[in-house]
Design a protein that fits this description.
- The protein is an all-beta fold.
- Helices cover 0% and strands 47% of the residues.
- The chain has no helices and ten strands.
- It has a six-stranded mixed β-sheet, with no helix packed on it.
- β4 and β5 form a beta hairpin.
- The chain starts with a strand and ends with a strand.
Protein backbone atom coordinates (compact mmCIF):
# COMPACT_ATOMS: atom_id res chain seq x y z
CA UNK A 1 0.00 0.00 0.00
CA UNK A 2 0.99 3.64 -0.33
CA UNK A 3 3.33 4.66 2.47
CA UNK A 4 5.25 7.80 3.39
CA UNK A 5 7.94 8.01 6.05
CA UNK A 6 9.12 11.48 7.02
CA UNK A 7 12.39 12.16 8.82
CA UNK A 8 14.92 14.89 9.52
CA UNK A 9 13.04 17.07 11.94
CA UNK A 10 14.44 18.44 15.17
CA UNK A 11 15.09 21.48 17.32
CA UNK A 12 16.82 24.39 15.61
CA UNK A 13 17.47 28.01 16.50
CA UNK A 14 15.86 30.84 14.54
CA UNK A 15 17.82 31.44 11.35
CA UNK A 16 18.97 27.85 11.22
CA UNK A 17 18.42 25.14 8.62
CA UNK A 18 17.02 21.62 8.41
CA UNK A 19 16.56 19.13 5.60
CA UNK A 20 13.52 16.90 5.73
CA UNK A 21 13.22 13.62 3.83
CA UNK A 22 10.17 11.66 2.71
CA UNK A 23 10.62 8.03 1.72
CA UNK A 24 7.74 6.85 -0.48
CA UNK A 25 6.68 3.32 -1.34
CA UNK A 26 3.76 1.33 -2.71
CA UNK A 27 3.24 3.33 -5.90
CA UNK A 28 5.06 4.56 -9.00
CA UNK A 29 6.82 7.47 -7.33
CA UNK A 30 8.16 9.01 -10.53
CA UNK A 31 4.67 9.37 -12.01
CA UNK A 32 3.11 11.50 -9.29
CA UNK A 33 3.44 15.04 -8.05
CA UNK A 34 4.25 15.29 -4.37
CA UNK A 35 3.62 17.85 -1.66
CA UNK A 36 4.72 18.87 1.81
CA UNK A 37 2.19 20.00 4.40
CA UNK A 38 2.57 21.12 7.98
CA UNK A 39 0.43 21.47 11.08
CA UNK A 40 1.46 23.93 13.76
CA UNK A 41 0.27 23.77 17.38
CA UNK A 42 -3.41 24.64 17.52
CA UNK A 43 -3.57 25.18 13.78
CA UNK A 44 -5.06 23.38 10.82
CA UNK A 45 -2.85 21.45 8.45
CA UNK A 46 -1.59 23.70 5.66
CA UNK A 47 0.05 23.11 2.32
CA UNK A 48 3.71 24.15 2.09
CA UNK A 49 5.14 23.15 -1.29
CA UNK A 50 4.51 20.96 -4.33
CA UNK A 51 6.79 19.38 -6.91
CA UNK A 52 5.72 17.93 -10.24
CA UNK A 53 6.23 14.29 -11.17
CA UNK A 54 9.34 15.12 -13.20
CA UNK A 55 10.64 17.63 -10.69
CA UNK A 56 10.66 20.38 -13.29
CA UNK A 57 7.98 22.50 -11.63
CA UNK A 58 7.83 23.61 -8.00
CA UNK A 59 5.43 25.93 -6.20
CA UNK A 60 5.48 27.27 -2.65
CA UNK A 61 3.22 28.85 -0.11
CA UNK A 62 3.95 32.55 0.26
CA UNK A 63 5.00 32.00 3.87
CA UNK A 64 8.00 29.84 2.85
CA UNK A 65 8.84 31.18 -0.62
CA UNK A 66 12.52 32.04 -0.92
CA UNK A 67 13.44 30.08 2.22
CA UNK A 68 12.36 26.49 1.47
CA UNK A 69 13.32 24.31 -1.49
CA UNK A 70 11.48 21.14 -2.48
CA UNK A 71 13.23 18.45 -4.52
CA UNK A 72 12.99 14.75 -5.34
CA UNK A 73 15.23 11.82 -6.24
CA UNK A 74 13.40 9.25 -8.37
CA UNK A 75 16.22 6.72 -7.98
CA UNK A 76 15.68 6.75 -4.22
CA UNK A 77 11.87 7.23 -4.23
CA UNK A 78 12.53 10.13 -1.88
CA UNK A 79 11.41 13.74 -1.66
CA UNK A 80 13.19 16.46 0.28
CA UNK A 81 12.47 19.83 1.84
CA UNK A 82 15.46 22.06 2.47
CA UNK A 83 14.45 24.68 5.01
CA UNK A 84 16.65 27.74 5.53
CA UNK A 85 16.25 30.91 7.57
CA UNK A 86 13.83 29.13 9.86
CA UNK A 87 11.44 31.17 11.98
CA UNK A 88 9.54 30.28 15.15
CA UNK A 89 6.33 30.28 13.11
CA UNK A 90 7.73 27.38 11.07
CA UNK A 91 7.33 25.18 14.16
CA UNK A 92 5.04 22.32 13.14
CA UNK A 93 4.75 18.66 12.32
CA UNK A 94 5.69 18.27 8.66
CA UNK A 95 3.99 15.67 6.45
CA UNK A 96 4.48 14.49 2.89
CA UNK A 97 1.83 13.13 0.56
CA UNK A 98 0.68 12.97 -3.02
CA UNK A 99 -2.37 15.07 -3.80
CA UNK A 100 -3.03 12.93 -6.86
CA UNK A 101 -3.44 9.53 -5.22
CA UNK A 102 -6.81 8.52 -3.77
CA UNK A 103 -7.47 7.72 -1.07
CA UNK A 104 -4.92 10.13 0.38
CA UNK A 105 -2.26 8.68 2.66
CA UNK A 106 -0.21 10.48 5.30
CA UNK A 107 2.95 9.50 7.07
CA UNK A 108 3.51 9.92 10.80
CA UNK A 109 5.12 13.30 10.24
CA UNK A 110 8.34 14.77 11.59
CA UNK A 111 8.45 17.48 14.26
CA UNK A 112 10.27 20.72 13.53
CA UNK A 113 10.72 23.12 16.44
CA UNK A 114 12.30 26.53 15.90
CA UNK A 115 13.23 28.09 19.20
CA UNK A 116 16.09 29.80 20.95
Amino acid sequence: QVQFVESGGGLVQPGGSLRLSCAASGFAFSRYAMSWYRQGPGKEREWVARISATGSTTIYADSVKGRFTISRDKAKNTMYLQMNSLKPEDTAVYYCTSDDIAPRSWGQGTQVTVSS
